[in-house]
Amino acid sequence: GQNIDQPTEMTATEGAIVQINCTYQTSGFNGLFWYQQHAGEAPTFLSYNVLDGLEEKGRFSSFLSRSKGYSYLLLKELQMKDSASYLCAVSQDSNYQLIWGAGTKLIIKP
Amino acid sequence: DVKVTQSSRYLVKRTGEKVFLECVQDMDHENMFWYRQDPGLGLRLIYFSYDVKMKEKGDIPEGYSVSREKKERFSLILESASTNQTSMYLCASRTPGTPFSGNTIYFGEGSWLTVV
């Protein structure tokens, strides 16, 4: 079957670092996306990984290991505005349809 | 700036009513999608369209239909609304890309539908 797993909820402190994990089992693989979604708003694109390794983009980094079916999103110097849900999605080989995880709700405390 | 616009943010409909959710994108994207989002379940694909007048069923098409008469507009139709269709509906669009292009999906603001 096809499955994407992420923790349901995480809590972190302002200024700290947090790592959100995503594991996947899909019939094909054509890249992994991370999206951010604030409550009541549309998801917005954060990152895309298709090759193994770390992609850094400012305070956010995303890592992929295709052999392990594993990715993580790393958020540094956390700010209150980072409180949101973070969605992991995998693009499969055929017709680029995305399989979505249920999302991780990140709560930032002062 | 990229724009996907959904016509209604909040709707309340009665069981059995026909419901139309409209979505318009201004990016000349070929692909358009309708998802529903429920707590703990993530985004589930209802229908998608590769191009004008083309449509394909997603994972949960039962109880829904779609229409794509113009490239920029993709409509979701609930023929006879039921309470289990109470949800948040997200429209999205994308230009198909080659592998490794990381072609991004752009989402609308979402439509919160309550069926009573």
What does this structure look like?
The complex is a heterodimer of chains A (110) and B (116). Chain A has 110 residues and is mostly beta strands. In chain A, 0% of the residues lie in helices and 56% in strands. Chain A contains no helices and 11 strands. In chain A, strands 2, 4, 5, 9, 10 and 11 form a 6-stranded mixed sheet that branches. In chain A, a hairpin with a 6-residue loop joins strand 4 and strand 5 (44-49). Chain A is globular, with a radius of gyration of 13 Å. Helix content of chain B is 0%, strand content 51%. Chain B contains no helices and 12 strands. In chain B, the strands form 3 sheets. In chain B, strands 2, 5, 6, 7, 10, 11 and 12 form a 7-stranded mixed sheet that branches. In chain B, strands 3-9-8 form a 3-stranded antiparallel sheet, with no helix packed on it. Chain B has a two-stranded antiparallel sheet with strand order 1-4. In chain B, strand 8 and strand 9 form a beta hairpin. The mean pLDDT of chain B is 90. Chain A binds chain B through residues 4, 8, 30-31, 33, 40-45, 48, 50, 87, 89, 96-98, 100-103, and chain B through 4, 40-45, 48, 90, 96-97, 99-100, 102-110.
Could you give a short description of this structure?
The complex is a heterodimer of chains A (110) and B (116). Chain A is mostly beta strands.
The helix-strand sequence of chain A is: EEEEEEEEEEE
The helix fraction of chain B, in percent, is: under 10%
Oligomer: heterodimer
The biggest sheet of chain B, with number of strands, parallel, antiparallel or mixed sense and barrel status, is:
7 strands, mixed
Q: Bin the strand percentage of chain A.
A: over 45%
Q: Residue-averaged pLDDT of chain B, rounded?
A: 90
Note the overall shape of chain B.
Answer: globular
Q: What's the gyration radius of chain A in Å?
A: 13 Å
SSE topology string of chain B: EEEEEEEEEEEE
Radius of gyration of chain B: 14 Å
What is the CA-CA span between the terminal residues of chain A?
A: 40 Å
Q: Span from first to last CA of chain B?
A: 37 Å
Instruction: Tell me the β content of chain B.
Output: over 45%
Name the average pLDDT of chain A. 92
Uncertain residue ranges of chain B: none
